[in-house]
Amino acid sequence: MSGNQYKFSFLISREKWEATEERAEVDWPKVEAFHKEAFNLVLVEGLTEEEYENVDEKGIKELDGLLK
Fold first, then answer.
1. How far apart are CA 14 and CA 31, in angstroms?
2. What is the maximal distance between C-alpha atoms in the chain?
3. What's the rounded Cα separation, in Å, for the pair 8 and 64?
4. Comparing C-alpha atoms, which of 8, 56, 64, 49 is closest to residue 31?
5. How far from chain centre, in Å, is Cα 17?
6. 3-state DSSP helix/strand/coil percent for the chain, to nearest 5?
7. Pick from 7, 9, 27, 42: CA 20 to 30 A from residue 17's CA?
8. C-alpha to C-alpha distance for 17 and 23, rounded to whole angstroms
9. Rounded CA gap, 16 and 58, in Å?
10. What is d(CA 66, CA 7) in angstroms, rounded to the nearest whole number?
11. 48, 26, 54: which is closest to 36 by C-alpha?
12. What is the pLDDT of residue 45?
């Protein structure tokens, strides 16, 4: 996850961006899925889908810094 220019909080629930002259295509749902997999590798008990869906703003901030 190193070198990722966007924080987790930025990519949550974003739709796919098509390529333009200024940037490449970005598949945000796929990037979010990679983050979820990484969280489950790092966290001792992982995150259930329900926990992930119900994470609050404080939890999002913690997840933002978790993969640094």
1. 10
2. 42
3. 5
4. 8
5. 15
6. 50, 5, 45
7. 42
8. 9
9. 26
10. 10
11. 48
12. 87
Q: How far is 60 from 11, CA to CA, in rounded Å?
A: 11
pLDDT at 4: 64
End-to-end CA distance of the chain: 8
Q: Which residues pair with 17 in a beta bridge?
A: 26
Q: What is the pLDDT of residues 17-52, one digit of tens each?
A: 999 999 999 999 999 999 999 999 989 888 899 999
Q: Tokens 């796929």 — which residue? A: 30
Q: Give the SS3 label for residue 26.
A: strand
Question: Contact 65/35 with Cβ under 8 angstroms?
Answer: no
In the predicted structure, residue 6 carries a pLDDT above the cut 90 = no
Q: Which two tokens stand for residue 65?
A: 């810094």
Q: Six-digit token pair at 19?
A: 């390529």
